[in-house]
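Homework help board

Subject: predicted structure for assignment chain

Our instructor gave us this sequence and asked us to write out the predicted structure in token form, then describe one feature. I got the tokens but I'm not sure how to describe them. Can anyone check?
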Amino acid sequence: MGTLNIDRYHAAMGDASFKDVARLHDQRLSDAEATFYVTQRKLPFAPCLGHERLVRLLVDSQIDRPRLRFLEQDRGGLQLFAKAIEDIQFVGKIRAVRPGTIVFAHEPFADIRGAFGLTQAQEIKFEHAFDLPMTTASTAMQFRMAAGDNRWLSDFSLRRNGDIERAVDIAVYAFIGGFNDTSNLEAAHRLDIPAVGTEAHYWQQAYIEYMDQPEIEPRTGKPKHFEQVAFERWLDANPNGTTLLLDTIDVYMGAVHAAMAATSNEARRRAFKGFRVDSGNLAELGEWCLHFFAANGLHGLRANLTGDLTVERVKDIVAEFPEVAGFGIGTKLSSEVPAVAGVIFKQCLMKDQPTLKASNSEDKITLPGRLQLFRGHDNRGMYVHDIIGLDDEQVEIPDAVKVERLLVPFWENGQHSAIPSIEKQKAFVEEQRKRFIDIENYPCNLSEKLRRLRDDLVARLRADNSGWQEVLKMTEPAVVEQETKG
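My token output:
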């Protein structure tokens, strides 16, 4: 079933700003073969994920009758477009990098070739398919690099996602990008991702009656603090192991009450596997608690830290408190990410003729021609350099003993290549990450042939000898003259 999206043209229902194309007044233009490439501009690096979402969108692309009737009423200037797309499925060709391939900003990770009229209408599918997965996986990768390979990372973002389906997606792509598990039970159920959680603040709060009607601690003959009672009940309910949350009242008090609860009998001692600190100076408090518990015979506990953690804060904590066992990441994984991928879909060929958008901003000039992404490997299997070039080139990369072509066939005649399981994609991302010596400074350049093609085409597009000055009046001649020279 097609979806209604007037905001930004697309899929079968489209963007009213594209109505001139959508009307298909020029049938020759509509039927001519065109190629568009797909990249992202905002993330320094990201695993390319979302292939399965793209397949769903392509398969589900046939528009339904109510939306066809809407278009036929010409509300968006799309009456002829509605007739053209009725009962048509996209049958073009798509190439893409392998699911999970780590790509860098501005590198082409997919392209699509087919009849111009329908091919350009697939833009939103690519943007919606790849933007969220790549953003999430890139963020997860950065957290993994900050935490190190031996520390646990848990997705605690469920409450920050605003929608259960988005929350499931976040859990999936964070897992592929480097996280170990999720607190999202729906994601764990659907996708066989490990599920974890800790005791919540409101568990202690629920035992407030024991402040006025306390139990007596047999070891001291004095009233138990109500938080100790709450911890004891939680340990009793989770005999196979659990994590206690210490900062409901005060971390130092929480540690004391947790120790009192855990040392009250052997079953509770065995159940106490770790603690969580969610506020304050996390490194300082986590280290103090770990030493305090060890001094009271509670050894080998896992210190888990949470609380609006950023990548930089995780790096700082690891440096200050090397014994930290893991982190729970929520807000900064999903709702407050520093940058989204910014996936874009740009035309690069029309009737086999290279084309591009020249733009007034240098960083928005697009690439022409049938593109290819080349990656060089050295004799140890380490990645050394990426080159964006043209598909008919034989690219050589210094220090590389092997040059791999990353764009490969993915979709043709309604059939797509196999998509690996979540576990295989996760393993592939991890394996690649270890093959970059310095992923944050990894070199990527244009081939000389592509650079010349781009620069020459920009110059030709900007050259205008039509004599328009003789026809049009110039209100600001100096400005116009400067712009035409530029």
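Reply (TA_rk): Your tokens look well-formed. For the description, you could write something like this. DSSP finds 19 helices and 21 strands in the chain. That's the kind of observation they're looking for.
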